[in-house]
Amino acid sequence: MSTSNSGFLAGAADIGRRLLRDRAALLGFALILLLVLAALFAPWLATHPTDVYEIHTARRLTPPGAEHWLGTDRMGADIYSRLLFGARITILIAVIAVGTAVLIGVPIGLVAGYYRNWFSDLLMRLSDIFLAVPQIVLAIAIAQTLGPSIENVILALSATYWPFWARLVYAETRSVKNETFVEAAIALGASAPRVMLLHILPNIASAIIVRTSIGMGATILTAAALGFLGLGAPPPTPEWGRTIAESREYLPEAWWYALAPGIAIFLVVMGFNLLGDGLRDILDPRIRRGGREP
Amino acid sequence: MKRLELILSRLLWLVPTLIGLGVITFLISHVIPTDPVAILAGENATAEQIAALRRELGFDRPLPVQLLAYFQDLLRGDMGVSLFSQQPIAEELATRLPATLELTFAAVLLASAIGIPLGVVSALRRNSAIDHALRVVTVSGLAIPSFWLAIQLQYLFAMKVGIAPLNGRIDGFGPEPLTGMMILDSLLQADWESLGGALRHIALPAITLALPAAATIARFTRAGVLEVVTSNYVLYECAMGLPGALVTWKYVLRNALISTVTQIGLIFGVLLSGAVVVEAVFDWPGLGAFAVISIIQSDHRAVMGFTLWAGAIFVIVNLIVDVLHTLIDPRSTR
User: Fold this and answer.
1) ipTM metric
2) For residue B230, what pLDDT is reported?
3) Which CATH superfamily is domain A38-48+71-289 in?
4) Is A269 at the interface with chain B, CB within 8 A?
5) Please, how many CA atoms are within 13 Å of residue A90, restricted to the half-sphere of its CB?
């Protein structure tokens, strides 16, 4: 609840300490860290780093063993190595898509919640229409029209996810705007952008952070589903969802093919969900009081 | 009176939402920089052929005129013809609706049967080992990619153990179609063989869709029960010496399940319109599978038709849920 810089740092340190005590949130953080490390050091961690684009027909569909820890795929590529490089695509898509959605949604929510006029009504109605369709459906429609590529997946995801942040920020802004400290700032003659950015935004930041963590998980799941449907990056990109789609033809013999990418998606999404849950317990005590989580 | 007002205003809101949805699908299909006409014409089309096709399809007219024509077609129920089946898209979607409806009902029933008891136990045994174990299970349930789970279930139960069919809806012709929902149809006609076949086929896709849904339901039930258990009137009933089971059944569950019921309704809407990938993996001949076939064939009009349908279904289901909610819980009209 502080707007000064030192207070903010102390607050962040406090949040960090409390996160360390929440074992579930800590596990979530560890899983996300694992994903980031895998993506950063993929070329060094991979046992067969060139397999991302090379074809080795001689060792197609080899079961897991000493040479290929997680087996090989239909092109003879090492699944473990491709998994690591796939982590890069997952992070890239999730961070840019969610980042864009936040950058669109938060200002819209702020402005609409601050001025309450016909224009803010229009903005909120627009976001309601987007929210009126399941995200996967709109994302499919946009990604299909644009054609299969990573950029288009990112575009489709950010175009469908921004209303979540707009809605949240709108509601939070409206409730904070009536607080005495905002009224005081306005009375002192602070300009509207100043009030929004320096007085309202810091006080609703926790809600945005919680929503962003959970939103990352949801975005990664949807991106994987788009990849699975063939709407993501074209082969030989080591995208996890696409790898799972490819594996279907080789079942039941190549049981290992889809196993690792599926578990990877599961762990990463779980990481963001656990972290989001933990952050919400710490940052949003109102929900705790309502008995949502112990 | 307040309640009627709320329902009416929600009904009125349906109109601009559907129009907005129409505008969005129009913008996606007409304005996005990839040229839809060039795609339709194919890779080998000459510039003249593309221009001729553009005129024929009306893509050379000003955008507002195109938008108007688009809505005129929609109002007549005309969404164009599917490249896949050569059937009108609207007709194709209508004939596929019962299959999706059946799968959604099965999944929601299953999810409720799993999720509600888990949530109640979790809340009543709060902070026990069971509660912690169930927390892990529900968080996991929400993180599993459904298409992956579908494939693993196929591998395990259809390919290895062989107790469930790999995909499809029925072996042979199935029961005489009355409602289009095979389980219901075979029950109505006492066709036990078809009933068995239909149940075996629906098992795996229903389980795939039910697991994440059960996790959501369990979480909401747990939260609802916790809120009621700690309330004053439950404390009062307990203090009056009423047996615990009676308090749980009569006073806790009835009040706690309001938010769960709403949540089940929302899940129903999501599954009805968004079970795209799971239907595709199991070749379940519903709306979602049609969407995937259309994606593979780059059939723009069919994908947009599906988007509109799915959106409309979702909006209407949500509306019904809202109205039901105001009926069950009078507090929400305040």
Assistant:
1) 0.88
2) 80
3) MetI-like (1.10.3720.10)
4) yes
5) 38
